[in-house]
TrEMBL record:
This is Unannotated protein. Keywords: DNA-binding, Sigma factor, Transcription, Transcription regulation. PANTHER family: RNA POLYMERASE SIGMA-E FACTOR (PTHR30385:SF4), SIGMA FACTOR F FLAGELLAR (PTHR30385). Pfam families: Sigma70_r2, Sigma70_r4. CDD domains: Sigma70_r4 (cd06171). GO terms for molecular function: DNA binding; sigma factor activity. One of its GO terms (biological process) is DNA-templated transcription initiation. Residues 31-100, 192-241 form the RNA polymerase sigma-70 region domain.
Amino acid sequence: MSQSYEQRDLLDIALIRLYRATRDPRRLDKLVERFTPLVRSVVRQYTGRGESADDLLQVGMLALVKALERFDASGGGSFGAYARPTIAGEIKRHFRDHTWAVKVPRSMQELQAKVARAKAVEPGISQVAIAEQLGCSVEDVFEAEIAHDAYRAKSLDFTLPGDGESASPLETMGSRELGYEDVTLRDEIEDALSVLGPRDREVVELRFFDERLQREIGHDIGVSQMQVSRILNRAMDRMREHLEDEPTDDPSVAA
């Protein structure tokens, strides 16, 4: 069996060298076809996480082409062993760069992932215990848990939990705050904000437009971080209810 793997690896290298020597696009197509099952096997590990399989396959195929160009075919070795982590890395980068609905600092994304892993290993673990394990503050763990809700913003009909910050329509807007091109969406945002009192509106705008941390907002307005979280939850509920209660202009609905 090991001999067959060795022969396959030698054939892979020979085909890659032949493509590089000729730069014939037909040979590249043949290589891509040859390694497509490898790409699909990697993609299967990441399906069901909020991205379509077709999108992930496209990312994987682009990563395959990069691997074909970068692989050192002069030193032997296995192209498959080289390509698999390369493809997986590109898919992970895709998730990291394209599925965060609110602009969250890279360091916070990484801490959020570590916190999630700690909870998976030990369900019910306290924030204090996680902070001790990761060598960070309890406040950092709290912020990391909040950052989890910035991953894949929810729709307007998302049911907000009782406590803690959660995804909202404004989180979807967070990554687009530098100039809205959709006038209708901008008007809808302003309409939703109009139902809030001055303090609630200020907190919402500081959090989702200025991307301030909850502890920073609390310091500015003289309340605790937990109070800021409750203000945000209350404001999100009020805005969502207001948008849902608005009459529709669709004549088919009115009929």
